[in-house]
Amino acid sequence: MVTLVLTTLVVWRLKTGRLGRAMQAVRDNELAAGTCGINVFATKVIAFGLSAVVGGIGGGFFAGGFQYISPDQFTFGESIVLLTMALLGGVQSPFGSLVGTLVLVILPEWLRFLKEVYLAVYGAAVILIMVFLPDGLWGLMLERTRLRAKPIAGDVPKLPLLTQTGAETQEVVLGVQGLAKHFGGIKALDGIDLAVRRGTVHALIGPNGSGKSTFINVITGLYRPTAGRVMLAGQDITHATPHQRNRAGLARSFQNIRVFRGMTVLENVMVGAERPGNDVAENPALVVERALAALDFVGLRPDAHREVGALSYGHQRYVEIARALAATPHTLLLDEPAAGLNLTEKHELGELLRRLKGHGLTILIIDHDMKLVEQVADHITVLNFGRRIADGLPQMVLKHPDVIAAYLGEPQNVAA
Hints:
By secondary structure, the protein is α/β, with parallel strands linked by helices. It has two domains: about 1-150, no CATH class; about 165-410, P-loop containing nucleotide triphosphate hydrolases (Rossmann fold), CATH 3.40.50. The chain contains 17 helices and ten strands. It has helices spanning about 1-15, 20-30, 30-35, 40-65, 75-90, 95-110, 120-130, 135-150, 210-220, 240-245, 265-275, 285-300, 315-325, 345-355, 370-375, 395, 400-410, and strands at about 170-185, 185-195, 200-205, 225-230, 235, 250, 330-335, 360-365, 380-385, 385-390. The relative contact order is 0.12.
């Protein structure tokens, strides 16, 4: 019993700590976890190792108690029972597993008075609980606790980004030279050159299939380039992993929202603040303050204790942006942040991006909404069929004949 209590407390403490949040992030979305500075491979190895330790402790007690071990003792049915215990109580917490175990052991004894039909009633009860309580019994208790939780009060220091000013400079903070990415015979990117200057909002636009998302995935390390070089603040990151690029000051959001759905809004943003190398990463109290400051900036602090999946689509995008800002990057990549937003939400997003300008943050934004691009962009690059067809100031680029042709098609001469 002492070992059981200690193991449960250690696992519970692990879940609420930095390593535990990293494990949950990897479980929920590996791609997003990597771009938040988490070393996915190392985190998986640690998780498997800790699982082996806990399993070894249990196996030691089992062997000592029975004085005999045989494969016949561990049937498929036993595996199903153990899995059911975890799901019934709730896999979100070690206490849930204890609750599920107690229920699964005690419930058959309570139903024995039903004699022949008790197994059917027992099975039906377990199925109903798992269908109507997908997060288990412990998950139900946690959800009610969250609903009663009051918003976190008190002032916190503003994001470091908002306390600094930075004018546009000629320094190239993100430079791309001859970047190419081929998928077999398809040239998604074909010799792209790009220079994003410090303190600017640089827009990358183009029709569907022009290679914009492929470009940002290569820049953030999700794809390996076929050719070319990527420089970040004078450092060659062409062959760096996603978490290494994030630790070098590069953060991003995704076209298809990639939040960690098994975590609260606050925990999602804390993952960003805990990026190795961040100034608050080693101090849990400061991590919470930084996460709250990021939520204050996007206006989601009242929702800090809510499950992130309970938020609207637009607010989930704000969680992604807050998570990126909590990491204190110097360069932020936004992959179609206005996708799926209504007119009100797009207006709010434009206001948010304008508030970021002038604070020294460099932003590369990809979007199809020309109104949003015109509102915030200082410089525009246009891609079409994997090639750069225009680059320059917004008023010049948007009137370029090749850009108009790419979006609207070539004019046709029709005979009278």
